[in-house]
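step=encode ok
step=design start
structure_in=
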């Protein structure tokens, strides 16, 4: 294969830009917050992460933050909204790509108050707590999961589906005891 000098230069520039974007995603600082307005660490069971048995999903891959229907669900991190829609199990759901190449997944929402490809700030309104999806017969809550797009091989263990822990992180390990910001931010007219 015979590549010209200009083609090699373009490939080199593209690789450097790609590497730069990957590194920037890893070094961006993050100060996450509890994704339900007014909630504290007492509003979820810390032991529910990876609890077995847990219905069709086998183990519980996140935490459930309990609150009344309509309570604001806020972005726990700044980032890019990469999904809004309805899923069979998760119901109304939003996913935000944040720092560290982590996806913050919010489900069982009553309403979705954001849109795809929107940049959101920490504390910005995403929707409201609900009972959608397979939560219809349960108390209203937000199911919250953090998914790492970069595998963390040291997290693999012998528990059921333990290999998935290289991607799915326990949100309770990242959240403060309570939020410093009191009110959700965001303009619903942009949703």
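sequence_out=
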């Amino acid at each position: 294969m015979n590549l010209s000098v200009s083609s090699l230069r373009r490939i080199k520039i593209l690789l450097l830009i790609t590497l730069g974007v990957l590194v920037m995603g890893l070094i961006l600082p993050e100060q996450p917050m509890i994704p339900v307005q007014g909630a504290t660490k007492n509003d979820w069971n810390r032991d529910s992460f990876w609890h077995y048995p847990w219905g069709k999903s086998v183990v519980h891959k996140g935490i459930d933050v309990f609150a009344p229907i309509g309570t604001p669900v806020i972005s726990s991190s700044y980032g890019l909204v990469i999904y809004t829609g309805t899923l069979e199990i998760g119901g109304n759901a939003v996913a935000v790509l944040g720092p560290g190449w982590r996806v913050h997944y919010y489900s069982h929402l009553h309403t979705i108050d954001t849109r795809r490809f929107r940049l959101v700030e920490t504390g910005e309104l995403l929707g409201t707590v609900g009972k959608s999806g397979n939560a219809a017969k349960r108390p209203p809550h937000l199911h919250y999961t953090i998914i790492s797009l970069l595998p963390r091989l040291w997290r693999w263990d012998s528990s059921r589906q333990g290999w998935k822990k290289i991607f799915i992180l326990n949100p309770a390990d990242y959240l403060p005891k309570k939020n410093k910001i009191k009110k959700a931010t965001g303009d619903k007219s942009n949703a």
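step=design ok
step=annotate ok -> The longest strand covers residues 102-112.
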